[in-house]
Design a protein that fits this description.
The chain is of the alpha/beta class. It has eight helices and 14 strands. Helices cover 22% and strands 27% of the residues. It is globular.
Amino acid sequence: MKLTTIGCGDAFGSEGRYNTSFLLSDDQLNILVDCGASTLLRLKQLNLSPESIDVIVITHFHGDHYGGIPFLMISNKMEYQRTRPLKIIGPKGIEENVYGLQDALYPGTSKVFNEMNVSFHEYANELQEFHQFVEVKGLPVSHSPGSIPHGVQVRIKDKLFGFSGDTEWNDHLLELSKGTDLFVIECNNLNEDSPGHLSYKTIQQRQNDFQTKRLLLTHMGSEVINAKNLEIDRLYDGLEIDF
């Protein structure tokens, strides 16, 4: 299994980084975890076909995490004439929110979901199979309540990936990390937590509590990106990790 970091930036594009999106792939499957507004651009920059995506998993309804779906859908329909199934999995309200966003950005185009055989599914707090070899669960975390924030686990065959989504400290982070081959955690700030976001200091203090083979930082502001000699590995746009 391979993780490709499509984008790992915060909402403000600190230090020129792109919006959050991770591609989990092997020789059979391509799973996007989050689909920020810059995702289509990044897929093309990395020579990855937008039509190749089998499943999209969304953590919450903020534009830097799901705002790229309308662009991806228009590309799949107009450039690739996609007809094969696509599954979009997310929190409660995933179908209504994505339909609304599609028509807000490209009025009248939500019909493409039916034309391209797109189905919507809501995850629960236990792993459920939504696609062959793909299981997903979501647990609530502490971010902007209106965005329905969740962290997720995604199991693909025998590999388990976890992602915090955007959040302050929440004990669900420990459960989300449990048994993972990779656990990606947001780290917007260096020394102090802020509303809805974690700091490196907090993550470092709890580092030994995470039950993962490898812990990685994402969604970093400039202070974290530019800090020297951090003990925990940081993602960067375009980074590939085999796990």
